[in-house]
Amino acid sequence: EAGVAQSPRYKIIEKRQSVAFWCNPISGHATLYWYQQILGQGPKLLIQFQNNGVVDDSQLPKDRFSAERLKGVDSTLKIQPAKLEDSAVYLCASSHWGSGRASTDTQYFGPGTRLTVL
Amino acid sequence: AQSVTQLDSHVSVSEGTPVLLRCNYSSSYSPSLFWYVQHPNKGLQLLLKYTSAATLVKGINGFEAEFKKSETSFHLTKPSAHMSDAAEYFCVVTLSGNTPLVFGKGTRLSVIA
After folding, report:
1. Sign of CA dihedral A8, A9, A13, A17
2. Cis, bond preceding A25 (omega within 30 deg of 0)
3. Which of A14, B57, B65, B99 is deepest in the core (most CB within 10 A)?
4. Which chain B residue lies closest to A31 (C-alpha atoms)?
C-alpha cells in the first residue's frame, strides 16, 4: 500500500512570507496528524484531525499557523507570516481510527517537509 | 500526562557488538510504547510497539524491547549492530486509541566499522 505523501520536500522562504505544506494520508486512514520537528529534538504534535474535524490543536500557534482537512482526506498546513523559529521539519502522519487500542495505535509518517526560514 | 526520557543522546558501538538504547517513561495510565527510527533525510519508521500484550516485544531488523513496569523502562536492544543501523532512534509513549504520540529527544546511534 502507498505510504503517506508530503510535498514539497524542501522549502526556503524569508521571514514574514507565507508557506503551505500538503499531505495525503494512507487510504482509509481517518486520523491525520501534523508534527513539527526542530533540529535535535523529537517531533511535537501541532494538530490532530479525525476525518475533517479537529481533535486536538492545543499546541498549534494559531496566530500564524492554520490547518485544514477538506473532505477528510488531504490536508494542508499553512504558516503566515513565518518566523525564523519556524525552521523545522514538518511531518504528517496518519492512522486508522478504532475503539480499541490493540492495533490502531500505529501512526505512519510521511518523509516530511524541511522548512528553512531566512 | 505522559513523557519519555531517553537517557543517552548519543551511543557509539562497533559493528557486530550489542546495542542498548535506554528509555524511561512516565504515564498516569497503562501506556502504549513505541520505538521509531529515523535515517537521515528519511521519514520515521516504526521499529516495534508495546500495547499491554507480551512484555518482550520483537521488532524489525533484529531489534527488541522489554517493557518493565516496575522500572518504568522500555529499553531497545539488538544482539549485533550493523552499519545500516546508524540512525536516530526515538522512544515514544501514548495512551490508548488515537491519541498523540509523545516523543523523547532521540538517541543518535553510530556504528563503527
Report:
1. positive
2. no
3. B65
4. B98
Radius of gyration of chain B (CA): 13
Contact B76, B57 (CB under 8 A): no
Task: Give tens-digit pLDDT for B29-60.
Answer: 778 899 999 998 788 999 999 987 788 999 99
| Inter-chain touch B100–A50, beta carbons under 8 Å | no
| Pairwise CA distance, residues A27 & A96, whole Å | 10
Could you report the per-residue pLDDT of A60-72, keeping only the tens digit for each?
Answer: 999 999 999 988 8
User: How far is residue B66's CA from residue B58's CA, in Å, rounded to a whole number?
Assistant: 9
Cα gap B90→B52, rounded to integer Å:
20
Residue A103 confidence class, pLDDT cut points 50, 70, 90: very low
Terminal-residue alpha carbon distance, chain B: 41
Cα B82 from chain centroid (whole Å): 17
CA torsion, points A1, B104, B98, B29, in degrees to nearest 10?
Answer: 140
Residue of A nearest to B53 (CA): A102
pLDDT for the residue numbered A101: 43
In a 13 Å sphere around the CA of A38, the CA atoms on its Cβ side amount to: 10
Q: Cβ of A31 under 8 Å from any chain B Cβ?
A: yes
CA Rg, chain A, in Å?
A: 14
DSSP secondary-structure letter at B8?
-
